[in-house]
């Protein structure tokens, strides 16, 4: 009893694992939990399905995948020594290099094999390693397809349809004894190719041109096309079985011969160690943090500027969703950035929940109510909000301007921009940067090489319309976006970003705050109708100055320019000329220039002199001369004005168009309500209904937490116990079919009640079949304690707790064998 029996199936191998190992499998392959398997057999079956195996293979690093590929071309089962030999070779070529590589491979192979075992892709002891059949079908070569290693099918597979006469001809040409048994002939030919000495003698007798043909096929692809009259070298190879026919025009180099030519290696270049991330520059960490902090402040200001420009209602939404090319160009011009960068800022605001659709019939983008709360936060907290949203977002702005699988253009803020791999790639890129010394900027190509090694099968996303290496593209976008957002500075990871990744937003904000300049409460007014803000301004000052002046240039210092239109905008917002004079005098460190005072007074004197209302619309003015001047102006023709009274004109256009038309003519009209009161236009009045930030599209099932894993393992163990428990065979009715192994017990209601009552009196255990409220059937082992009111209260051995079961949901019962609990 002290000896352990090697597992015969994957289910037996999984059954022998402890709970921690089963939890590790479910953690590595969370798709196996949906739904929770009823027992170990169901778990093994699900772990062998093609979709699940492909998903597991996609999460392997390059060396673990190479190990699985080597097992796929090895005999089944294979020994550990055989697997190691396929990875290191037999040392017959370039011996010194292979010795060095072999040492690294020998050190890395146990870890790779442990990963494959943990994920239930490989099972069995080292003497009998077995690759899951589905994985072998995916990775192993076939008569029609080569494996990822470039090896072709075996001699037995390639000659499966060959005539015995042709086999005899090959044996004779190779100098092997003739045999009329096809199996013996195939075995003899395979033995020749695996015999180093005899194979060497055969190749020594081959023409030099034939060896050149083999050199082109040995590392794959192993297939070649031949003409009806092949050249002498190809004919020699075909006659001696080194090229076997797959079809009338195609031949293949058999696996055994290729392995001999490869010196026993399944891969040309095994990669047991991940490539290092190289540095291109080592900079002062303080300079890195300062540069990143400056960019972080610029990122916050840019997002705020974008949302301010859409305060009164942003651009319209396309019928298919997203921004039009024209609107994206306008946004890029307003922000003074290239269009891809403008798309990034718009997507970032959307991902952070600060921007959304207003939901109106004429659907437009507008800031959300969350924007107002965000705008009141300190700059460092606003940055952590943006950075956290960016890290988790699956929307990928780098795709804007490309095409989807159907050839349709991908627009900013539109659909089809979600890529579930984006968060994982971003975190992995930043983790690689965090592993470097502070101030170290990495070489982008080395970062890409490391990512390709870690996930070699997950580069392309053909289903999403991308046929190139999507992970590499996301990684490059991550490096660029990190610099824009202030995640990195001068290419190196900033200290506050390390804190964001390790400790969270609060710690990151605390480290970033000292690096951001304090907001100023003053500007410098100049005689050329400009104001210079030597740094970031306090929010009330910045809001008021934005309404009163236009931003002329941005940078370390922001230059504002006062114009008649900007002053009128402030007056439209409800400010008076006295208010503007007082505001400038209070916040300027220099005297208010006389030209600016004259500009404000001049615009204020004319502001509101005309009144606009709805008639469709009308103009009224106490000064008849002004109305006469308007009517005489040829530019007013498009407004279709006519006089209603000496002080009133009617127009055939709406009030907004009338306002705009008169302003273009040089007047400063004001809108009024139906009661005759002046309407004040307030900035930022338009907001969407409350909107939540878009939910990232998950990449497969979420990783379960410890509580769910523990419950799932207990449920699987309990179901397995019930399915494998030894029980007494119930007497069968005459002519009734025998119960199938593993099926639920079936008894009548009366038999079920009697058996359960008897077990409650004797304290014995029963095996029951049970169907829950969702219709899911399971098998359980219970010890009844009480039976009353149509329910049985029992200790459930499989769940290790006391439960109550309705009798009408029990399909049947059976007594356990006497040694079932031994």
Question: How is this structure best summarized?
Answer:
The protein is an alpha+beta fold and 822 residues long.
Present the secondary structure layout.
Blueprint: H1 10-15, H2 19-28, H3 40-47, H4 50-58, H5 62-73, H6 80-88, H7 95-118, E1 122-123, E2 130-131, H8 133-139, H9 155-158, H10 164-173, H11 182-194, H12 196-204, H13 208-217, E3 223-225, H14 232-239, E4 244-245, E5 250-252, H15 255-261, E6 279-282, H16 285-309, H17 325-335, H18 339-351, E7 355-357, E8 365-367, H19 369-375, H20 379-392, H21 422-434, E9 440-442, H22 444-454, H23 470-485, E10 488-489, E11 492-493, H24 495-502, H25 505-512, E12 524-526, E13 530-533, H26 539-548, E14 550-553, E15 558-561, H27 564-572, H28 577-587, H29 594-606, E16 611-613, E17 617-620, H30 624-632, E18 642-645, E19 648-651, H31 655-664, E20 670-671, H32 706-724, H33 749-762, E21 766-771, E22 777-788, E23 791-796, E24 801-806, E25 810-815
Parallel strand pairs: 16-20
Antiparallel strand pairs: 1-2, 3-5, 4-5, 6-9, 7-8, 10-11, 12-13, 13-15, 14-15, 16-17, 17-19, 18-19, 21-22, 21-25, 22-23, 23-24
Helix pairs in contact: 2-32, 5-7, 5-8, 10-11, 13-14, 16-18, 16-20, 17-18, 20-25, 21-23, 22-23, 24-25, 27-29
